[in-house]
Amino acid sequence: TALGRSDLCFEDEDRLYICEFKVIGKADSVKEKLEEAKAQIREKRYGLRLSDKEVITLAIVIINENKDETHEPVREVAAIEEVI
Question: Which of 16, 28, 39, 71 is most buried per CB count within 10 Å?
Answer without folding.
Answer: 16
